[in-house]
Amino acid sequence: MKALLDAASSIKTKLGVLVAVSVVVAALLATLGSASGVPVWLTLPVAVALALGVTQLLAAGMVAPLRQMTQVAQRMARGDYSGRVRATSSDEVGRLAAVFNRMAADLEQVETERRDLIATVSHELRTPLAAMTAVLENLADGVVPADSEHLEGALAQAERLRRLVTDLLDLSRLEAGVTRLQPGDVTVDELVGDCVREVAAAGRAGDFDVDIEAGLVVVADEARLRQLLVNVLDNAARHAPPGTPVRVTAGRAGAGWWLAVADSGPGVAADDRERVFQRFGTDPAGGGTGLGLAVARWVAQLHGGTLRFVDPEPGNDGALLRLELPGEVPTTSAAAPVSPSQVSPVPTAVAARAIPPLVLPAADAASPGMDSVFGAFWPERPGLVGLRVVVACALVGVLAGAVMTFHGPGLAWTLVLLAAGASAYVTAHHRRSAFTITCVVLAALLVLPLTLLDNEGVVLLGVLVAAGVFLIGVTDARTPLGFLLAGFSWPLSSMRGLPWFGRSLRVVGTGGRAPAVVRTAVISFVALAVFGGLFASADALFATWVDAIVPSLSFNDLVTRIFVGCVVFGLTLAAAYLALNPSQVEPVRRPVEALGNRFEWLIPVLLVDAVFAVFLLAQATAFFGGRSYLESTTGLTYADYVHQGFGQLTFATALTLFVVWAAARKVKDEPTDRLWMRISLGLLCSFTLVVVASALYRMHLYQEAYGFTTLRVTVDVFEGWLGVVVLLVMVVGGAGHGRWLPRLALLSGAIAFLGLAAINPDAWVAGRNIDRYEATGKLDIAYLQSLSADAAPVIAERLPADVAVCALRPRRPADSGEAGEARDSVLDWNLGRSRAQDAVADLDTDAARPTSAGDPCGPVIDAYSEGGAR
């Protein structure tokens, strides 16, 4: 597909293909799911997710050159011109990438030439400046007389500087590889003598032993040749030991001539004889920059000759530098060696150290694809783990498709959820945080009711609470707003993690161990299928073992399992990405401006305190006035009265927490203001605790009158948890540790739910209703029949046999179609259902079967509902 997209010459064509492929994939999946009987709630998310995945994988290659251009442009802004864009497509983006690469190459060449020019000019101007400075200092100090000879020497150095500045105009021709020489007759011994004096005048100590054939006249550009000789003589004098001369010899050789410079220094190793001609290639300990020899070789090559180190003569140590020039000198040169940067390339790292480039403020790193959508809320950290997280989540999906499909909540569901949580936690960014570890442990405990209880409501609520606690833990949220954003981040991570998912998949085939892992998995699966099938067909016993492990699959079953596996894989992968790269759920804290006047929040809080006080006075009046006073005053029965306001009191409790939070943030940080506000808020919290106690007491009276239900017990636990939060506000907030309150409230809520699950609410409610039956003779058998299997052991143990048979009639194995053949598997094992089966097995369930004579349980239900007893 990538090759086909690369061949397209228009990005509009690519976008059309992209949309078409995504729509076809989604349509095929929806059709397949519908034909196989897969529910819409499974088909739709898988089709959408797979269409998004296909879009991401295909679009990644289309926009990759644009992301690379952004990265390279930001590097160029920091002075690095070596980056290039890799693009294989022929569309508008590919052509733009090619033009961008040419522009980057041109800028890199210009930057290199700029550095070379600065380095060359700095080196060439240093020697005449040093010589002229020395002459002028001697004149100023009176060391030498200010006669015409010394003044002419200073004037000669100034003239040379002028000529060098003029030569800068010629350097612009080096960019085109062309420079002009001005050859003429040059007397070598005179030129060498001038260069020796120039080097000595520049302050270079040492003796020179010049042995040149008298009257040797050659054709060369005198200015350039002087440039060469000064550099090589200066280099030799710098390396020659004190008291030893530098030997300079010259002569003719056929149609050309040669010149040799020898010193008694440490010499140049054979492996280094080319390196020393590179810019900055010489030993810094020698006192030079390494540019001199590079410029000297450049001048030699301009004349069509060579400059190189050769082996010294037998019996002599040190270095021997030999110059060989032809008799005819070209007036122009267009060969590659014309430019010094081409003759002796400058190592990038060294050149950058010698002449620092212009450094601009560092730009942000190139943003992955979704940063433009999510912005600072969810940046992606560099170097995220990829393939192994995807593989772990895929294994969880395979496990879910194999064990969760066609099985109800039980052991299999618990194992899948624990595996999903483990795969997301092991690479979590905050996995070593104590808060994260605590949340993960609580989440693991909250999914255990899947195996221990049969109450679907409690089990579902436990899974939701476990997911929330886990997400809050891995994102390291600290505030209620952060808790909320952590929950929203889970579905959003399916889009935020798409670029990361695409990069993780592209790791396969790029080298390393990833391709080997994939090949190993494929080969292992094929080997198991082939040899397992052969042995299963050859041996009946082996075939029974295989059937026990591998489920028999029809086509529709296979499709359903695939959809279930894909859904679980997607949810697990989204959670794993959120744990690996948490969103910034905590907003930037901004200081809250305190109110200028204390009464702006103090008076409202005091008024709320007054309302609470009046309400509590009414509660006390109703309590001490008794039922008759209450019924005569309100016209309500006592049970209706206590039931009427429970929801409002619960809401008032939660609203009080918001008032306390808002008022505490606005109080001025002054002792007097803080004291008054603490008193008023403390009074409000105290009144709220009394309201919580009143609400719980109301619910207790109502349950005594109308019976206990699981929902009422759950509401009791919730109201009690709100009271605990209020108490934490008073204790922890009053101690100045308010930042801990949200997390403490979260953990206490999770523990409260664990306590609710631990008491087995359906069994507890059944026990309380039987207690009420034993005290009043009233029993709501219809409600007992609606309870889950968790209540069966209590009902069978405490009620008379005929009543228990009727109350447990929906739990008989013969009538529980949902508990048919699939529930016999160990994957469906559930402690509540297992105990219920044992309890029902001990009863005579046939006595409760409806017959032609009527339903034997009808009179039983009527009798106990009317309050009669047998």
Highlighted features:
870 residues, mainly alpha, Heat Shock Protein 90, 4 domains, two-stranded antiparallel ribbon, 9 strands, magnesium
Helix content: 55-70%
| SS-derived structural category | mainly alpha
Poorly predicted runs: 284-289, 332-369, 813-823, 866-870
Per CATH, the class of the largest domain reads Alpha Beta
Q: Roughly how many Å apart are the termini? A: 79 Å
Superfamily (CATH H level) name of the largest domain: Histidine kinase-like ATPase, C-terminal domain
Question: What would CATH call the architecture of the largest domain?
Answer: 2-Layer Sandwich
- With strands numbered from the N-terminus, the spatial order across the biggest sheet is 3-5-6-8-7
Count of folded domains: 4
Count of individual helical segments: 33
Shape: elongated
Average pLDDT across residues? 76
How much of the sequence is in beta strands?
Answer: 5-15%
Quaternary status: single chain
The value of Rg in angstroms is 45 Å
CATH topology of the largest domain: Heat Shock Protein 90
Question: What is the number of strand segments?
Answer: 9
Strand count, sense and closure of the main sheet? 5 strands, mixed
What's a quick, concise take on this entry?
With 870 residues, the protein is mainly α.
